[in-house]
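The instructor's notes for this session suggest beginning with a concrete chain rather than abstract definitions. Hand out the sequence below and ask the class to guess, before any prediction is shown, which regions might be ordered.
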Amino acid sequence: MQGRAIPGESAEYRRVRNELLAAEIALKDERERVAQLRRQLPMGALVKQDYVFREGPRNLRDNDASRFFDTRFSSLFQDRKNSLIVDHLMYAAKNDRACPMCSMWADGYDAIAHHVGDKVNFVLIARAPLEKLRVWGQRRGWSRIRLLSSYANSFNRDFNVENSDDEQHPAVSVFKRLSNGEIHHFYTTEGSLGGGHHRGIDLFSPVWNLLDLLPEGRENWMPKHFYDSHGLAAVQS
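After discussion, reveal the predicted structure:
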């Protein structure tokens, strides 16, 4: 369709549009090449520690701490699902709110978690204490994505999404369970890939892709925690 002229367009528009189409096809092909290179990665470091996380009932309105429980990293791998995707949410224990950009990403993940979960284990892990994380998830309207707190373990630090000052970093990681039961780190992509602000994982959110379609592009727009009546989310304190 992109190669077909639209009534009323100029010859100059069609020339530049066809040039853009060729670049879009080349970009698609390059993404396929990168995905193939990723699949060819050997197994990474062995996960030597069976980290213990805190988890609660699936209903985030149920925030009775007596119903919280421990969940081991190894138990995140269900039968016949030997891969695990982890969304690392930037939410330090000392903070009142999670990162607005990470929250936007997680909004999207929550919407598709049941689709992703049909093939692979999929969880969100944050450093914030579980009760605080669940309250934040309830305010965001999350209902599908599985929330785990790493407050009492070194998981974030060990996988380079936390520095010595407790500063958190955005990332998405993949882990693989082998036939012998060993669990290995396979891949992590960080938000600051190559030093560019958040471009490392912005492809995982349709928001950026839609804004990039505009004549003015995304410009300096950044997500907010909540929006006014003209936005899609209600105002919350």
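Then share the key points. The mean pLDDT is 92. The beta strands are 52-55, 69-72, 83-89, 121-126, 146-149, 171-177, 183-190.
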